[in-house]
Amino acid sequence: MRVRDVNKEALVKAKAAELLVTLGFEGFSMQKLAKACGISPATLYIYYADKDDLILKLGQEMGRKMVESTLKDFDPNMSFVDGLKKQWENRAQFILENNDMAHCFEVIKHSSHCNIISDSLASEIRPKMELFLKNAIENKELKPLPLEVYWCAAFGPLYNLLKFHREGKSLGNIPFVFTFDIMYQTLEVVLKGLKP
Amino acid sequence: MDNLIAEFMVFKTNIKNEIDRLNLMFSLDSDPEIDTWSLDIEDVDHVLRVASISKTPNDVQSIVRKLGYECAELD
């Protein structure tokens, strides 16, 4: 009979995130993960019932961390400029500090577990974001837009900058490194576009 | 008194499809000494894991083998 080991569990999660990014959802297996961790497959099964169980739990944990980080020091009653700035800072910080995890979360989001994970996260983040947007529109800080249009305009530019950073290059293979100065410059343009 | 928490026993089997899984389900689900179990039919070792406070690996192997399947404890 085997006992859970917290350190081993952390190693398993880190390696699983790494392997899901490099091998993709289909190429990933419990046997490959056990080998990468230098542990027996039997040990792996102490923590997870199968590959789906592992990916679901990993996705839920990553999502929780991402939501916590996105909402850190954010108050839906902030002015629109301050609130969006805080969210850009939080999202950028999280992705820069957890590159593997953030990339892996994208892989998981495209799997069949996407809905289960999104539903559990949405219940936490949605009410705050809805209040934030309602306040911003009422205070005439934000033009009323369909949600998809708002999201693409408000966050698309940030995620593109972070994607360039992950790839180490921007358009035409020009070397690129993300800085908060570049981020604030981009945010200024976004805020102008979203004003009524 | 400390609460006893069942740990998983892990086995390699040759239980490869849903019909075999159902066969196993009838035996394991009806056993009051088994807290929970799962089977990964997609893994090369078709891993069975069983949590029970009172059952030993030998007990589990005996249940599975009586159903006509191979079952060896994974190290």
Major sheet description of chain A? none
Oligomeric description of these chains: heterodimer
Count the helices of chain A. How many?
9
SSE series of chain A: HHHHHHHHH
SS strand fraction of chain A: under 5%
Range of helix content of chain A: over 70%
Mean pLDDT score of chain A, rounded? Answer: 89
Cα-atom Rg of chain A, whole angstroms? 19 Å
Round the mean pLDDT of chain B to the nearest integer and report it: 90
How would you sum up this structure, described in words?
- The complex is a heterodimer of chains A (196) and B (75).
- Chain A is mainly alpha-helical and 196 residues long.
- Chain A is 75% helix and 0% strand.
- Chain A is built from 9 helices and no strands.
- Chain A has helices at residues 6-27, 30-37, 41-47, 51-70, 80-97, 99-109, 114-138, 147-167, 180-194.
- The longest helix of chain A has 25 residues, at 114-138.
- Chain A is globular.
- Chain B is an alpha+beta fold and 75 residues long.
- Chain B is 29% helix and 25% strand.
- Chain B is built from 2 helices and 4 strands; from the N terminus they run βαββαβ.
- Chain B has helices spanning 18-29, 57-66, and strands at residues 8-13, 36-40, 47-51, 71-73.
- Chain B has a 4-stranded antiparallel sheet with strand order 2-3-1-4, covered by helices on one side.
- In chain B, a hairpin with a 6-residue loop joins β2 and β3.
- Chain B is globular.
- In chain B, 29% of the residues are buried.
